[in-house]
Write a structure and sequence with these properties.
With 179 residues, the chain is of the alpha+beta class. It has helices at residues 2-18, 80-83, 154-163; strands at 24-34, 39-45, 48-49, 55-58, 62-72, 89-94, 98-103, 132-139, 143-153.
Length: 179
């Protein structure tokens, strides 16, 4: 009986220690505005507006949560940049009258004033410096929470103001600026 109890106890301990808790991740992605101007963003693919990606207004000194992802594992979380990889450009409109064009991944256009993908200030995340910031918010043995944030600054506004004419049209069609 003594030997049987030891075997049962050993099996029970083995089963309990063999249970492994799943790891998980979550990520929150924000676009923030510290430019002293309102910001609207319109995304394009093949010259067409992608309406479900349009960000109507980000007030000054605020951040909009634009993407959230949760899953299992402890690797790189899906993020907003991954979801925009197939888009070719974004038009960023400050105060409804000052425009900046951002080219997406692998977009080659003739607009010499567009902010190319490799530029640190590109909204598509062309560089790990500039407006894009990634950080770990919290990390435990079984969960990691990250945050990805792009922030518009006054310098972004000044660049746009120096490169594009303003418009008073509240819903402009700037497709001519894309390529």
């Amino acid at each position: 009986m003594q030997k049987t109890n030891k075997i049962v106890l050993l099996m029970l301990v083995s089963i309990l220690t063999a249970c492994k808790k799943e790891t998980s991740y979550s990520t929150n992605n924000f676009i923030c505005n510290n430019s002293n101007h309102s910001v609207n963003i319109t995304y394009y693919k093949d010259g067409m507006i992608i309406r479900n990606r349009t960000i109507d207004s980000i007030a000054d000194a605020s951040c909009n949560l634009i993407y959230k992802s949760n899953g299992f594992g402890k690797g790189n979380a899906s993020n907003y940049l991954n979801s925009t990889i197939n888009l070719d450009s974004a038009l960023v409109l400050f105060d409804n009258n000052t425009l900046a064009v951002h080219y997406g991944f692998n977009t080659i256009g003739s607009n010499t004033k567009a902010i190319a993908f490799g530029n640190p200030r590109n909204i598509f995340g062309g560089s790990s410096t500039g407006g894009l910031e990634s950080r770990i918010v919290s990390e435990t043995k079984h969960h990691i929470e990250t945050e990805l944030k792009y922030t518009f600054t006054e310098q972004d506004y000044l660049y746009a103001k120096g490169n594009y004419k303003g418009t008073n049209d509240k819903s402009p069609d700037f497709r001519g600026f894309i390529v």
